[in-house]
Amino acid sequence: MRYDENYEYLKDSSRSIYEKVKYTPLNKSGSTYISFGGEARGEFVDFNNEDWGRFNVGHNNFFLQRYDVHADVHFGPKFRVFAQLRSAFQNGSKTGSSPVDEDHLNIQNLFADVVLYKKEDKVLQTRLGRQEINYGSGRLISVGEGPNARLYFTGGKVWYTSARLSVDVFAMMQDTVNPGTFDNKASKQLNLWGVYSKLIIPKSGNLDMYYIGINKKLSRFEEGTAKEVRHTVGARLWKNGGGFIYNLEAAYQFGTFGSGNISAWTASVDLGYSFENTKFKPTINLRNDYISGDKRAGDGSLQTFNPLYPRGGYLGFSPQTGPVNLIDIHPYGTLDLLPNLKFQADVVLNWRYSLNDGVYRPSGGFNMPGSSSRKRFIGTSYLANLAYTVNNYTSLVSGLQYFKTGGFLNDVIPNSKNGLFFNLQLSFMF
User: Fold this and answer.
1) Cα(129)–Cα(112) distance, integer angstroms
2) Which long-range contacts (CB under 8 A, 24 or more apart) does 371-375 make?
3) What percentage of the chain carries pLDDT values higher than 70?
4) 20 to 30 A Cα–Cα from 74, which one of 58, 175, 219, 403?
5) In three state form, how does the secondary structure of 210-263 look?
6) Above 90 in pLDDT, residue 155?
7) How far apart are CA 206 and CA 169, in angstroms?
8) Which residues face 40 on adjacent strands?
9) Contacts of 23 (CB under 8 A, 6+ apart)
């Protein structure tokens, strides 16, 4: 989150040209100042059988670009305004552009922060305007950094932070994204609201607890298409670094879908160990997810879990299956081959949780029906990823994924084909 950066520490130092861009005083005392930043990202994508042969797309390669600039103005310690413009382009895809691929120019962030109370480490603040939001592991609310165009909302939040506790209360509207210039349409209804808290437990880790509500005019599942009002309550217990690492999360959902009721759930266990004092600093992890699907299509009630606004690539850097109606077993590991070169390898085995529900996309959107097949196994993803940090401003990332189709896909798609994905991404940030 670029708006979390703070360059006030440059106030009393002699500065280079770059540091002057990051901190430019606007008054004699330096209490009012402006900071500029930006990013340019280009990505080459080569996909074979993204649709597993369902629509005969075959080989598809294309180029993605993303650019943004921002200004952060601080008017003393209690008021600031943050503004960010972003452009996203897609060139060459056979299947065209989706809202996460292309948005030629939009206001990504434009908000004001006000500090309502501050005493020692205890701070109460409010934020109003267009803003990106991201919570927890990105399982339910994320900016979607993987796709080309990041997600944003318009609304407000109030949050409290102290040394061990943070609590956010938010109410947001999601805009409709169009691919042109300043043509995104503001929503006239509340789409997203909730409370997200984080408690630091000394020597044990962190505990997140949350409630999230959504209101969508039309949502599509194998059960059908209807208005959806859904409430999610959940908790996450997690710890990174220092040997044993873990990420445990569970959530339950209830509400209404059309005239029927919603009752859905998810549970995830991710356990691992970080060998921080060993050569290459290897980490090994084993993850297991259970994500509910609908018990019976067409009966009016809905048991399909909705991941709301998940980060792209939640089950891998570019999966072909999404976190809906799914059971997965996911071993993975990392190596620091060099101080600035990290390697990760994953294997993800995917099954349908319910045989009466279908397969969904990484965004959570409905992909294909599944009630016509009694096969459970979807397929296996094999992934490898390299991330190279050239310097403080430049990074290079490359990934490879092979998806071996399983019994379900072979059953519902005549002459189904295995998927192969490759990408190369270069980013510059200042």
Assistant:
1) 7
2) 371/222, 371/297, 372/412, 373/408, 373/411, 373/412, 375/406, 375/407, 375/408, 375/410, 375/411
3) 98
4) 175
5) EEEEEEEEEEEECCEEEEEEEEEEEEEEEECCCCEEEEEEEEEEEEEECCEEEE
6) yes
7) 19
8) 67, 428
9) 7, 8, 10, 11, 15, 33, 35
